[in-house]
Every structure is written in structure tokens, then in C-alpha cells.
Q: What sequence folds into this?
């Protein structure tokens, strides 16, 4: 680690740990700020929609909405308790707020305000959390690796973990239309467009089978559905036939669709951009046990630990979220 | 800031329009009935936040019988002023005020804190008509009030928002986030009323976490700040009148800091060692009521 000791040696080119690193692959089709544009579109059709942020408008794509509807945008400053208390107050007056900050601050810092001010009275407050799971190299202060674990225990809260720009564009108006509070694990900036190839539409509360396969079934959410699809294609070259089931709504969970896919002889693997504690894996596991299925489920998830800081590709590889690591795990399981 | 305007506001504060004896009498009578209701509710439970209810009764009576724009038969009336009880444990006093306002039947008050009652020990919007928010996790009310004030103003409503909080809630950082937010957004339709009874769960406020100087804090946050004896109905009315006079869709939020006495109106409780959760023996409730009535009638006839 010491730079002085290696001063004489030519330095290798360093990978940087950008705050908001893109997880899009080089050359991949992307859409700019899908959340911001979707919110503007929804707001054009519904004048009750308003937006708030806690000094993170530019970093949660809320700035698109703020520019389009300055009179319907409220900057709350770096004050997350105020952000979500005020969001509840706005909802009490009949408006439909979308309130954005980073997932770590929503889940860890403002939980009490979300729980009692929005969830208990079941208000239509829509929480938009940036940097979910491992989507930044800044380390534990910014990596919301346990946000779903925290939020799943909150009654009335709907949790959505979108895969791509299609998911986000289609989810926003449905979140606005649904009763009660919601939490969206935001992907921002240039977000990959993936699901358009699969004849897919987002339906709140529904899991969708994106592709069939005879040997393995992937149950995935969030950006890991993109990786699951890529891994499925790559595994085909190893003569492994993989089905992919995308479950963007984590709560309420579409157990019927998922269990029908799991209750087969295929290897069942969950894939999530979240801690192995309290996220998709445990959601699936509890559904399996509740249904009385004696079925093994293999998790691809982040470890139960505070993750390193570093470059995102390095970290995704280190913690097993890359296509290569997924393939290796599946092939090892099938041996 | 607009110093001229602030100078005018200060001038208004120095020359409050004196409330008429009729108004003072009417509010005092309402406060007496609120206290009486609170004692009756406390007796059924054998416990409760009676001390706080007695202390805050004059504030509650001023709001509900003199200031608040509401329809008793339609608590959800869209154009109503909003009264937010941030201190959920003051619900006993708030229920008494809601009964006084005709929103909750007086006959229902005896169910306070009982199974399946609409009147739980800690106030919740999901249980009780006229209860705007679920308070109790302290430091929430003013943040919600900021959102309501923004939302109502955006929708063109001229309704006002009153948030009732306690001096203990000044410990909470969120209260000050909201205080900054209300000033930043110039929420002139928002009034905070702070019950300064100088008592918290673990003891006197100045031994738990010093909040003074309270007046200077609110002033420095840009609020139109008044501090009054919260058990002096005439002073309360003047302060609320001042706040109403400068209320506007866009303007300074206002705060009325009310110094109150826990157990006010019942000598036995005023003199008892102050506690967050005051113990009153079974045989003492009737004495409390008699002292309350004697004190009120003595004052009313004076």
C-alpha cells in the first residue's frame, strides 16, 4: 500500500473507485436517466405527482423532473428525516411524492420517518434510493448492501428492484398509481436497456419468466437479471440450458410464479445485488419452506460483511457478481 | 432578510391587540372542560399523561375553541386548518380537546387506552377522527408539517398548519431540520406551538439536555418567535392573534413558545414532585376534580 516503497518501480495503471460507476458493458445499449424522464412523463399525465430530494437531485436523476416542473419540485437540503417526513406531509394533502436520496440514507438514516409517517398510515410516498447494493466503489458509507433486508420488515411497503431502463420506465407510473408507500432501487445515469429483447413488460407484484431452460433456473432481480441473462447465454455454450425468472417486485413477492419454476429437478439459483441476508435469497427460501418444498437453493449474493472500497469491476469480481463468477459457480454445482 | 418587514412584525409583537374578556372567558371555560375530561380519562386508566394534559389544556383550548378552522361533523373537510400532535403521549389532552370541539363524543372518552378503543394511549391518525398524524416517535411532527404546508400552498389552499410539539422534542435533530426547511421554503402558513414544561422522561429538561436559550434558537432559524406564559389564556390569545396577523402563503413561519406548568389547575398535582408519568392514587381523583373546579370557579368569579 505504501507509495514511497514502490516509487522506483513503474506504477501499474490504477482503477478508480468512482462514486457512481456505470455497470453497463462497453457498447451496451443504454437509456439516459430513465427514472427522471419517466417521472416527467407520469407527471404530465398526473398533476398530483411532486418530487423532492435531499441535496442529491443530480445524482438520482431527479434534476430532470426539477427542470421540467420547478413548481412541483421541493429541495429539502441534506436532511433526510425532513425529506421523508415532508414527503408524508405532502401525501397527507393528496399529492403523490417521489422522494430521492441514496439508498443508504433512506434505509439507515430515515427509517423511523418512513415507517411511522408513511407506512403506518399507508400513504402513497415513493422512496427512490440511489446506489443500491454494490453500485459504487465508495465503501460501506455509500453501499446499500442491506437496504432490502432493512426495508422488508416494514409493513405496507412495496419494494421494487428493477433490472434496466425498461423496468424503471414502466415501473414509475405503476408506483404512482399504487396505494401505499414504495421503495425503488434506483439505477441512474446511462442505464442499460436489456429486457426489450424478451417481450417483457413490468407488472408491479409480478415475476416474469424471461427464458426457459432445462438444466438450471435462475431467480433474479435488479441488475443481476442482466447478469443472469448474460450468464445463461454463456452457459449455453457449455451445453447448460438455463431458465431466467425476473422478480423485480421483492415485496409483495410473486411466490406462485417463482415456486412453480423452482419446484422442478433443475438447479435453482438466486441472483441479487444485495447481501445474502434478508434479500431475494431469503425471500425465495422462506417461500420454498412455507410451501413445504424440500428444495435446495443456491445463492449468488453479496457476503454478509462490509465490502471493500475500489473499482466496481474489481469489486463485482471479488464478490461474485460477474458473469464469469456466476458461470463458475453454476458449473461447479453441476459437477 | 427584509428588515423593514421584520421590524413591523416586532412592532406588532410589542403592541398586541388585547383579546376581549369574552374571548378569554370562553377559552378558559373550554380549558376547564378539557382538564375535567382529562382527569376522568386518567381515572379510568388509573394512570396516564394527566400532568401534561393539564399543563397544555390552555394551549389546546386556545387552538380548538378560538383559532382553528374546522368542521366538527366533517373532520376530513379539505379546507380545514391542520392541527398536528407531534407529542403522541399528549393524546389524552388532545382527545379531550377533540371532545370539546365536538369531533369525538364525550361519552367515548372513557374508552381511552382500552382494547379496541379509537383513543389509544399514544395518538395515531389511523385510529381517531381529527387526529392528523401518528405522533409519538418524537421529532416527526414538524417535518410532516413542513410537507403539509408545502402541499397545501402548492394546491392553492389558504389553510394553516399548527404543529404542537414539546420542549423535549427540541432534543431531536429532525425538529431543527424541519425548522430550517420551513424557513427556507418561507412557510408562512405554518405555526409551531411548543409546550415548554421543562420536564422530560428522565427528569427536568435542563438536566437531561439543555435546550435554552430556546427563544434565540428559533429566532436564529428565521422564525417569527413569541414566548408567553402558556397557562395565561389572554397572553396565548394575543400571541395566536399576532401569528395569525402575519400568516401568509409565503412568509416567515411562526412559533409560539409556551411556558407551562405540569398539572396546572389542580393544586395537589401542581405541588407534587413532577414526573413524566404521574402517579395518582385511586382516592385522589375526586380531590383533583374538586380542586380543579374550585380553582376555575374562584378565578371565573374573581
A:
Amino acid at each position: 500500500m505504501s507509495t514511497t516503497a514502490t516509487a522506483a518501480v513503474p506504477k501499474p495503471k490504477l482503477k478508480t473507485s468512482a462514486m457512481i460507476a456505470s455497470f453497463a458493458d462497453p457498447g451496451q445499449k443504454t437509456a439516459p436517466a430513465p427514472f427522471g424522464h419517466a417521472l416527467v412523463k407520469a407527471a404530465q399525465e398526473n398533476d398530483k405527482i411532486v418530487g423532492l430530494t435531499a441535496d442529491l437531485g443530480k445524482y438520482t436523476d431527479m434534476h430532470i423532473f426539477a427542470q421540467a416542473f420547478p413548481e412541483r419540485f421541493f429541495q429539502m437540503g441534506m436532511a433526510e428525516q425532513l425529506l421523508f417526513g415532508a414527503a408524508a406531509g405532502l401525501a397527507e394533502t393528496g399529492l403523490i411524492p417521489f422522494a430521492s436520496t441514496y439508498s443508504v440514507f433512506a434505509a439507515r438514516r430515515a427509517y423511523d420517518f418512513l415507517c411511522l409517517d408513511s407506512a403506518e398510515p399507508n400513504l402513497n410516498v415513493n422512496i427512490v434510493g440511489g446506489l443500491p447494493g454494490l453500485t459504487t466503489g465508495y465503501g460501506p458509507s455509500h453501499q446499500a448492501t442491506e437496504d432490502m433486508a432493512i426495508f422488508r420488515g416494514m409493513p405496507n411497503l412495496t419494494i421494487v428492484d428493477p433490472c434496466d431502463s425498461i423496468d424503471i420506465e414502466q415501473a414509475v407510473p405503476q408506483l404512482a398509481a399504487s396505494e401505499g408507500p414504495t421503495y425503488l432501487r434506483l439505477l441512474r445515469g446511462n442505464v442499460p436497456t436489456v429486457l426489450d429483447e424478451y417481450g417483457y413488460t413490468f407488472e408491479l407484484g409480478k415475476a416474469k419468466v424471461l427464458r426457459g431452460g432445462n438444466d438450471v433456473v435462475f431467480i433474479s432481480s435488479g441488475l443481476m437479471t442482466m447478469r443472469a441473462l448474460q450468464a445463461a447465454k454463456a452457459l449455453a455454450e457449455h451445453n447448460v440450458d438455463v431458465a431466467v425468472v425476473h422478480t423485480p417486485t421483492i415485496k409483495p413477492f410473486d411466490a406462485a410464479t417463482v415456486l412453480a419454476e423452482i419446484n422442478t429437478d433443475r438447479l435453482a439459483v438466486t441472483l441479487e445485488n444485495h447481501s445474502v441476508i434478508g434479500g431475494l435469497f431469503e425471500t425465495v427460501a422462506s417461500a420454498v419452506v412455507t410451501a413445504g418444498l424440500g428444495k435446495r437453493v443456491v445463492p449468488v449474493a453479496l457476503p454478509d460483511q462490509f465490502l471493500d472500497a475500489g473499482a466496481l469491476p474489481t469489486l463485482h469480481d471479488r464478490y461474485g457478481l460477474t458473469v464469469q463468477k456466476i458461470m463458475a459457480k453454476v458449473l461447479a454445482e453441476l459437477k | 432578510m427584509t428588515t423593514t418587514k421584520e421590524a413591523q412584525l416586532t412592532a406588532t409583537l410589542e403592541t398586541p391587540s388585547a383579546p376581549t374578556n369574552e374571548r378569554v372567558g370562553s377559552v378558559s371555560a373550554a380549558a376547564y372542560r378539557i382538564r375535567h375530561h382529562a382527569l376522568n380519562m386518567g381515572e379510568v386508566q388509573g394512570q396516564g399523561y394527566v400532568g401534561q394534559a393539564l399543563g397544555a389544556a390552555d394551549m389546546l383550548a386556545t387552538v380548538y375553541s378560538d383559532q382553528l378552522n374546522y368542521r366538527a361533523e366533517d373532520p376530513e373537510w379539505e379546507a380545514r386548518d391542520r392541527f398536528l400532535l407531534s407529542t403522541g403521549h399528549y393524546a389524552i389532552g388532545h382527545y379531550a380537546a377533540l371532545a370539546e370541539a365536538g369531533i369525538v363524543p364525550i361519552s367515548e372518552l372513557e374508552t381511552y387506552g382500552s382494547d379496541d378503543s379509537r383513543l389509544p394511549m399514544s395518538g395515531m391518525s389511523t385510529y381517531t377522527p381529527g387526529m392528523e398524524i401518528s405522533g409519538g416517535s418524537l421529532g416527526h411532527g414538524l417535518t410532516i408539517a413542513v410537507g403539509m404546508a408545502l402541499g397545501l400552498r402548492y394546491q392553492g389552499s389558504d389553510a394553516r398548519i399548527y404543529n404542537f410539539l414539546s420542549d423535549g422534542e427540541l432534543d431531536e435533530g429532525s425538529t431543527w431540520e424541519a425548522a430550517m426547511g420551513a424557513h427556507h421554503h418561507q412557510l408562512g402558513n405554518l405555526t409551531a406551538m411548543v409546550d415548554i414544561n421543562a420536564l422530560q422522561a428522565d427528569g427536568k429538561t435542563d438536566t437531561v439536555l439543555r435546550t435554552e436559550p430556546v427563544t434565540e434558537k428559533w429566532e436564529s432559524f428565521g422564525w417569527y418567535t413569541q414566548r408567553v406564559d402558556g397557562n395565561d389564556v389572554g397572553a396565548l390569545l394575543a400571541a395566536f392573534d399576532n401569528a395569525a396577523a402575519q400568516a401568509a402563503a409565503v412568509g416567515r413561519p411562526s412559533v409560539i413558545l409556551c411556558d407551562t406548568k405540569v398539572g396546572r389547575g389542580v393544586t395537589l398535582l401542581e405541588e407534587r414532585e413532577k414526573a413524566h408519568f404521574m402517579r395518582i392514587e385511586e382516592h385522589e381523583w375526586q380531590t383533583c376534580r374538586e380542586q380543579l373546579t374550585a380553582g376555575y370557579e374562584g378565578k371565573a368569579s374573581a
Remarks:
- Chain A has two domains: 30-192, 205-334.
